[in-house]
Design a protein that fits this description.
- With 297 residues, the protein is α+β, with helices and mostly antiparallel strands.
- The chain has two domains: 71 residues, no CATH class; 217 residues.
- Helix content is 62%, strand content 10%.
- The strands form two sheets. It has a four-stranded antiparallel sheet with strand order 2-1-6-5. A two-stranded antiparallel ribbon has the order 3-4.
- β1 and β2 form a beta hairpin.
- 36% of the residues are buried.
Length: 297
């Protein structure tokens, strides 16, 4: 009897040509092949620089299957960062138009927090409609980041192995925040507050881990060193914003001014997250990160 057909997913790096390298064979890339009898060295199947028609070895080129269309994945981090930005960009002017607060530039004036800008009415529904799917996409991006980094040559460290699980936690807390945004009561306020705090914290840790791995793999993989430095700069911006937020009451006497400053740093922090996911999208596109799905019998 013929076995039932099943779906097989494979991740690839497409290097500006039809040549591909399956990421399902990561144990044979940039390191050793692990077996029950131990480990033995294997040859590197991915040469650099990346965007070069002759950049891949013959064995890797033979693994390419041009007949199977590949789905590039760079749009996932792009949407993961763009959806929350789009949601708040639409919700903010709607809230101003409804008279919920006067118009201002929140990045400079800090007139309202992100939560207040999308807390009531249509702005709330619109923002949540884009934020919740973005949370799922962000969790998926962190999950897919690990095989991409390992294919670039980053070693499988303990921190890197924690990335998918930290990404899952960040996703859950962002969903928690978005779900209870606009609700009333002490318990719901607690859920919103700690949802966003843990989301910011876990995402900041994830950014540091991924940026460090990209920076270490940049020389061997052909990834632009400038792009790696941009990721690190974005990571450093978040702690600096946190420090500024913490010491602001020491230098600003007016409580209202302190509140405005904290609101502004929150907006800048959200913008840093968006830029980070956008930079990951650029790198995934440059390295040709893709997935092929086929029916296997």
């Amino acid at each position: 009897m013929r076995p039932a057909a099943t779906l097989e997913d494979e991740l690839y790096l497409l290097h500006c040509s039809e040549a591909v390298m399956p990421l399902g064979r990561l144990r044979e890339v940039n390191g050793t092949r692990r077996t029950r009898r131990g480990s033995r060295a294997v040859t590197n199947k991915l040469d650099t620089p990346a965007c070069n028609g002759d950049s891949m070895t013959g064995s890797a080129q033979r693994e390419g299957e041009p007949g199977r269309p590949a789905t590039r994945l760079w749009w996932l981090p792009l949407l993961a960062g763009a959806l929350p930005l789009t949601g708040i960009a639409l919700a903010f002017p709607l809230a101003v138009g409804e008279g919920q607060f006067p118009g201002c530039n929140p990045l400079i004036e800090g007139c309202v927090s992100i939560s207040r800008a999308a807390r009531h009415g249509l702005p709330n529904h619109l923002f949540r409609a884009l934020l919740l799917p973005a949370a799922v996409l962000q969790g998926l991006v962190w999950w897919l980041a690990v095989p991409w980094l390992r294919a670039l040559g980053s070693p499988s460290t303990r921190l890197l192995r924690w990335v998918p699980w930290l990404g899952l936690a960040a996703m859950v807390f962002l969903i928690l925040y978005g779900t209870f945004l606009g609700t009333e009561g002490t318990w719901y306020r607690w859920m919103r507050r700690y949802g966003v705090i843990f989301y910011f914290g876990f995402t900041c840790i994830l950014m540091l881990i991924v940026s460090g791995a990209v920076h270490r793999a940049a020389a061997a993989s052909g990834v632009s060193r400038a792009a790696a430095r941009v990721l690190l700069a974005l990571c450093l911006a978040l702690p600096l914003l946190g420090v500024a937020n913490s010491v602001a009451p020491l230098f600003i006497a007016d409580p209202v001014a302190v509140d405005r400053f904290e609101n502004a740093t929150e907006w800048w922090g959200g913008l840093v997250f968006t830029l980070f996911f956008g930079m990951i999208a650029v790198l995934w596109r440059r390295t040709g990160y893709a997935m092929r799905t086929a029916l296997a019998r």
